[in-house]
Amino acid sequence: MRQKNSDKPSVRDRIVVAALDQFHTEGYNGRGVQEIADAAGVPKGTFYNHFKSKELLALDVLQLYIEGNSPEMLLDTSQPPLERLRAHFGFISRRYAECGFSRGCLLGNFSAEMADVSPALREALDKAFGDWTQGVASLLREAQAAGQIDSRHDPELLARFLINSWEGALLRMKVVKARQPLDDFYDVCFGVLLK
Amino acid sequence: MRQKNSDKPSVRDRIVVAALDQFHTEGYNGRGVQEIADAAGVPKGTFYNHFKSKELLALDVLQLYIEGNSPEMLLDTSQPPLERLRAHFGFISRRYAECGFSRGCLLGNFSAEMADVSPALREALDKAFGDWTQGVASLLREAQAAGQIDSRHDPELLARFLINSWEGALLRMKVVKARQPLDDFYDVCFGVLLK
């Protein structure tokens, strides 16, 4: 959580958790403050004691979602770089398998729905993708130093491409409601690109 | 257009064109029927003479968007396959450059926002992505026959991957508001994969 209201942390957290579920299944505009408050089991007035707007809530929701993807796995050097990258995407994949390959990535969903209309969300998404890119680029540099992948690749460019392609695979996964797009991603990225 | 109301084709078309602009800039849930009718310059009652629901309108909007991407370019054998594929993505890119790298792909936006909540849109998106994949796969088979790319690639798998990655690049483009994600796509796809 980005920020806690020290006198009522549990209510605030409950709202963020409920909103993550609501935004992830119905989209940002698919759910209003009333429905989020209902899902959290709090009166609408209580909602506004904790969040001045749905947009500010969405920033906390984004942070909670990112934490759930365990981005710190990328930095765990107890595993060789490429195995770690595969484990990272595998860990995230399991979140989608659990819900029938629906929902997709909240970063991607918010990008599609909100990047043009909410400067605050666009900025938060840019930072989130940027941080993720840095983590993957750092891992790719390790993989190059370890001779796991071609040293001629530009790690930053390849990291951006991998993350963008992953996001695209998750969009298609939502449409086909199956893991094929994720398998395609693994096949091409780990079988062809990261050699 | 999927279907025309023979007595008032121009009004129907005007609604679809206005809705494409509205959905593309604000998202499906970001605009209601009243706002779409206003943008088309027709009374709300007239809207419902032509479309029983916003969801049915969205199916026509999707079709109009796809036609605007000129998918027939993929089949124009007067150009060699890979040059044609690059020209295809280049043609679509120009649509985004014209609006400051915002909006993104309507197929991707609808996938993110609506694939889980509208079975009709999910089905239409699945067909659209499937048709597009077939076009690209056919081109890749040509490219293999012409010796332009490695014959060991599975053309269907590679076509799905390319389209999904393109969709991911467009999501990131909406966030960074620049063409870098498109350039990354070209660099990796045409510079590394399609060799």
Automatic annotation (TrEMBL), chains A, B:
Transcription as UniProt keyword: yes
Entry keyword set: DNA-binding, Transcription, Transcription regulation
Cross-referenced Pfam families: TetR_C_13, TetR_N
GO terms assigned for molecular function: DNA binding
Record PROSITE patterns: HTH_TETR_2 (PS50977)
Superkingdom of origin organism: Bacteria
Regions that span the bilayer: none
SUPFAM superfamilies registered for this protein in UniProt: Homeodomain-like, Tetracyclin repressor-like, C-terminal domain
Name recorded for this polypeptide: TetR family transcriptional regulator
Organism: Capsulimonas corticalis
